[in-house]
Structure formats: structure tokens, C-alpha cells
Design goal:
2 domains, 6-stranded parallel sheet, 6-stranded mixed sheet, 37% helix
């Protein structure tokens, strides 16, 4: 029997999730909710039969098993709690919430209602990063003395060819009370989560932040992070470059290793920019949704979990508080 999924939010990342979810062999996109009638019409064209302008009405459907929440960060708490109270399993986009307190509430609601909660971190499903994890566990690198992680892109300021940034950019992108921060919480949560997968928990973190565009939030960050494995990592993220780069460099006592996540080819990127809203198939995003559904069907606790999302956010907040001034 196929798991019936509901999608809440059909913005940039929501469109990506919808197109992947429709291809899942073990699930059915039962319904979609969004305040935009244009977005709902697009979902109907793709074959979704049940559409709602109010997700709370969607949650009343007894046939619905789980929801994918692709809303702005400040809406995560209410939507995730509402879904949990309706006894629907939850796949929640990163970051888990805007504050640590909100993150704890999201986790508590899922636990209280005995529903599964998974965070959307597609890099955890990237085959190259998974191979790197296996190499570390097998001792092929020896002890990883230090690591360098870079994730830079154009952010919300310039159109991104991956199609994930909406245009025009919504006001909430520029409100730190709603987002929790700037480039570091947006991009850094991916890197912190990935590093935790490789090196264990964060035991110390300090950061320096840049304000190239003169906003109230950082558009770049450089952080030094120590993990329980003993590895020291330099994390470099930013919204300042039109040249996308996501790369890990590890330096071990036996050998070094580097992994780079490649963006779409330039021809494909140009095509996407001309065809607004069109996105290519992204294997890690597809794999994480398929895994989420498998966890539901086999009654397995998913990973990354709500606790992972909380630990990421705690590290990010610690970096904001422990600033390095040069």
C-alpha cells in the first residue's frame, strides 16, 4: 500500500519536493496546500487531485499519512505542531525552527503524538559524502586532524540557477526574527549537519561574520568548530558569489580527501533561468523522500531526526554568540 503524502507550501523548495514526490514508487501525493491559487493550479496540472488554500483543512483528511512541510522558517513551529496533533508524520525542511526554544517545541509535539519527524538535509543522501563517511569509519584517512568546508552561492540577492530562490524575494528573508539569522543559518546548517554526520557532536564553535550588503543579518561567515572526534573544522559560507561552490576538504594522518557537490551544468542552468520554475531531477532530494516514506512503512526512526535539527541550531546559535573580532 502506498503512503499518502500531503505537501504544505509550493514555493521554490516545495516545487522541487512535489516533482520528486510524484515519482516515488512507494507513495502517492494525495494533497497539496498553499495560499497561492497559481501554485495549486500548477499542482493540479501535475496530477494532484486534492488542493487546499488552508493546510489545516487538509490535515483533517483521515486518508493522509504524512506531510512534507516546505514553508518559511517562522511557520515551521505551527505547521509541524498542527500536523503532529493531527497524527500525521512530518518531513520538515531545514532549519528546524528560528530559535532553539521553538525547535524543542517541534520535537516535543512529535513525541507527544507518536509521529515520526525527519529534517530535510539532502547532503546526507549525497553518495559522495556517504562514501567519505564510510572511508572515515574504515580508517582510510586515519585520524582527521582538520577539515575545511565551503558553501557559497548568490543567496537571495541574485537568481540562482538551481531554481530554489523565489523571485521576487519575500520580505521574510530579510527579517531575522523570522529566519533566525542570515547566511550562516541558511547555508551553515547544511554544513554543520554534514560535519556532525562525519565527526560527532559540536563541542566548541566560534564565528566571524561579514556584512557586505549592509543588512541586519550576515551575508557571510567563517567559523572554527571542534567536534567530539577531535577534528577541528573551518566552515566558510556566504551569499556573496554567483559562482556556486559546496566542497569538503579533509586532512587525515593517513591521507587527504576532497568532495565537491557539483551544480547543474551551465547549459542546464541557462535553460532553467529561461524556464522559470522548471527544476531538474535531484537524486539526493528524491532519495531523502523515499527514505522518509520507507521509515513510515517499516516503523523506523528517521535520520536526520528532530534532535539532529536541534543540535544543528544549538551550534549555530552558539556561533552567533561566540563571535571572533579581528
Amino acid at each position: 500500500m502506498k503512503t499518502k503524502l500531503g505537501l504544505i507550501g509550493v514555493g521554490g523548495i516545495g516545487q522541487l519536493h512535489l516533482k520528486h514526490a510524484l515519482k516515488l514508487p512507494n507513495a502517492e501525493v494525495y494533497s497539496v496546500a498553499d495560499t497561492s491559487k497559481t501554485a495549486l493550479h500548477a499542482a493540479k496540472i501535475l496530477g494532484v487531485k486534492n488542493t487546499y488554500t488552508n493546510y489545516t483543512e487538509m490535515l483533517k483528511a483521515p486518508e493522509l499519512d504524512a506531510v512534507l512541510i516546505a514553508l518559511p522558517t517562522h511557520l515551521h513551529l505551527k505547521a509541524a505542531n498542527d500536523a503532529a496533533e493531527a497524527k500525521k508524520h512530518v518531513f520538515l525542511e531545514k532549519p528546524i525552527a528560528a530559535t532553539v526554544e521553538e525547535a524543542k517545541d517541534v520535537i516535543a509535539a512529535a513525541q507527544h503524538n507518536s509521529v515520526k519527524l525527519m529534517l530535510g538535509y539532502p547532503m546526507r543522501f549525497n553518495k559522495h559524502f556517504l562514501k567519505l563517511k564510510q572511508d572515515i569509519e574504515d580508517g582510510q584517512l586515519g585520524d582527521v586532524e582538520n577539515a575545511h568546508a565551503t558553501y557559497v552561492c548568490a543567496g537571495p540577492f541574485v537568481h540562482r540557477a538551481d531554481g530554489h530562490s523565489p523571485a521576487p524575494v519575500p520580505d521574510w528573508w530579510f527579517n531575522t526574527k523570522q529566519t533566525g539569522g542570515g547566511a550562516f543559518i541558511d547555508l551553515g546548517c547544511h554544513i554543520i549537519n554534514l560535519m556532525r554526520m562525519l565527526f560527532g557532536e559540536v563541542v566548541d564553535i566560534k564565528g566571524q561574520f561579514g556584512y557586505r550588503y549592509g543588512m541586519d543579518f550576515e551575508d557571510s561567515a567563517m567559523c572554527l568548530t571542534r567536534f567530539t572526534s577531535g577534528t577541528l573544522a573551518a566552515v566558510n559560507v556566504g551569499w556573496y558569489s554567483q559562482d556556486y561552490l559546496l566542497r569538503l576538504d579533509l586532512h587525515g594522518t593517513v591521507r587527504n580527501a576532497s568532495v565537491e557537490h557539483m551544480p547543474p551544468a551551465s547549459v542546464s542552468s541557462a535553460y532553467q533561468m529561461l524556464r522559470k520554475g522548471i527544476t531538474t531531477f535531484n537524486q539526493p532530494h528524491f532519495d531523502e523522500l523515499e527514505y522518509f516514506v520507507n521509515c513510515i512503512q517499516n516503523d523506523v526512526v528517521p535520520s536526520p531526526s528532530g534532535l539532529d535539527g536541534l543540535r544543528d541550531l544549538e551550534a549555530i546559535c552558539a556561533a552567533y554568540q561566540n563571535r571572533i573580532f579581528l
